[in-house]
Amino acid sequence: MAVLLLILSVITGVFLGKHFGKKEKLAKNLLILSAGFLITICLNEVFPQVYTSGESSNLGIFVIVGVLLQMILEALTKGFEHGHFHHHNEHNILPVALMVGLFVHAFIEGIPLANEQHEISPYLLGIVFHNLPISFILGAFLFNGKKDSKSSSYPSLLIVALFALASPMGMLLGNYFNPNLQPYFLAIVGGIFLHISSVIIFESNKNHNIDWIKIGLVITGVLLALMMHVFHTHPPVTNL
Description:
Transmembrane segments: 59-80, 92-108, 120-143, 155-177, 183-202, 214-232
Protein name: Zinc permease
Helix content: over 70%
Subcellular location: Membrane
Strand content: under 5%
Order of helices and strands: HHHHHHHH
Pfam families: Zip (PF02535)
Shape: globular
Distance between the termini: 34 Å
Largest sheet: none
Keywords: Membrane, Transmembrane, Transmembrane helix
C-alpha cells in the first residue's frame, strides 16, 4: 500500500501539472497547504520518534545534516521542492541535475518507511502530501512547454519514473539497515522537512504583508496533520 501511494502521488501530481501547469498560483497554494501539513508531521511525529528512541544524544547533529543536505540538493533542483517554477527551455537548470537532486531527496525520505509499524502512517502521508505539489511543478516543467516530440518525451518520462520509484527504492534499501539506525535517518529527514516547510511558508510572502489566504492554507494543513496525529496509534515512549 505504501509503495502504491508513493507512486500514485507522483503520477497524479505530474498529470495535474501537465494539464494545469500554467496555473502557478494553484501550485503555490498546494505547496503552502503541504508545508503546514509537513511541518506539523515533522514536529508531532518525526522529532518525537527521534528524541524518544533512546539513541545517542547527538541526534540533533543529524537534523542539521538534513538541513544542509537539502540546501545542497536545492543547488541541483533550483528550488523545485518549494515552488520555484522553471521552463523546459531555461538553461539555469539541467534535467540531469534535476533528476539527481529529486531522486536523492525522495530516496532518503523513503528509507525510514522500512521500519514503520503501520502500513499507513502520518509520516508516509507527509511524503505523499508533499509529493503532489512537487510533481505538479515537475509535470509543468517537463510537459507543459512547446509540443513535445517523442525524442524529448523519453527523458521526461525517465525523470518521472525515477522520482516515482525513488522513495520505494529507499524503503526497500531500508530493510537491510540495522533498525537501530532508524532515529538517525528520521533525524536527517526531519531536517529536510523542517527546511522545506519553513522556506515555503516564509518565502511565499515577499512583502511581509498579512496574507490571510496563506495563513488559512497553513492552518488547514496543520489541522489535517493534527487529525492524522490524533487518530494514529503511537508506540510507547522509551524510558531514557
